[in-house]
Amino acid sequence: MKTLNPAEFITMEISDEETKRFEAFLDRNFPGWREREMFKQKYAGTIQRTWRVGVDDVERCAIYRKDYVELHDQVFEPDEDFNDCTVHSMKCRLCAIEGDLTPVAKWGEHRRLPDAD
């Protein structure tokens, strides 16, 4: 399993071609995700897509990371008064954008990148 430096994946920009690759991964591995997508306007043109999974309190978040897609499953637990909630991360995996849901990488230590001349 490859160890990635988070500093190399900070960009929030994504081209139209990269968006097509990212969404092709989602279409291939999560048929029907578009019908359950949340925050469509907020995330349009960005590196992130979020949709409901199964029951309403579980969200799946996919983040474009160049040759990888980072996936998070989250559950929201409201407090007694429903004024606030706690977010529980259930799963996190880094998959190859051209592949399936098999984790192929993990996050390593955040190391500063050399300054460009």
Explain this structure.
The protein is of the alpha+beta class and 117 residues long. The chain is 15% helix and 39% strand. A seven-stranded mixed beta sheet has the order 1-7-6-5-4-3-2, covered by helices on one side. A hairpin with a 6-residue loop joins strand 6 (85-96) and strand 7 (103-107). The longest helix is centred in the first third of the chain and has 14 residues, at 16-29. The mean pLDDT is 84.
Q: Order of helices and strands, N to C? A: EHEHEEEEE
Distance between the termini: 32 Å
What's the pLDDT, averaged over the residues?
84
In what order do the strands lie side by side in the largest sheet?
1-7-6-5-4-3-2
In total, how many beta strands? 7
Main pleated-sheet profile:
7 strands, mixed
Query: Hey, roughly how much beta strand do the residues contain?
Result: 35-45%
Q: Which structural class best describes the helix and strand composition?
A: alpha+beta
Radius of gyration from CA coordinates: 16 Å
The percent of residues in helical segments reads 10-25%
Tell the overall outline: globular
Q: What is the tally of helical segments?
A: 2
Low-confidence stretches: none
